[in-house]
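Q: How would the structure tokens look for this protein?
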Amino acid sequence: MNSYEETSERISGQTQQQPGHEHEMNPQPVYIRNNYIASDKLLDKVALITGGDSGIGRAIAVHYAREGADVAIVYLSEDRDAQETKSLVEKEEVDKFGKDVPLERPGQPYEVAPCYAFLASEDASYFTGQVLHPNRGKSMQS
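A: Here is the predicted structure in token form.
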């Protein structure tokens, strides 16, 4: 995505019949700043955005998603633009995956595999009723 400054310098007059198609615009509009840092303002909220396929609606959908909202959009007939908005909203959700766990990121299989190898070994025969916490040594409250 282009920066706001780059896009603003290249804007020229464009016209389209309504409803318009954002994918036909050149340059493409900037719908969120790359350096926008969310603070979970809309965590656990649900948003239904009309006209969410493009323009201000797309910008709102992406910002709401980054702020933690579950987003649904309604649009007329701009399927291609709506699919792009859907992809952008889903990317925001994927980027947050694993942030609400102690390590603040998704775990990887290789990080827990040594625990299984230990439990399968003779060394584990001295353990009864213990719980292994493969959490990089961070203290956890249980």
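The CA atoms of residues 13 and 26 lie 10 Å apart.

The helical segments are 4-9, 55-66, 79-96, 109-120.

Upvote if useful.
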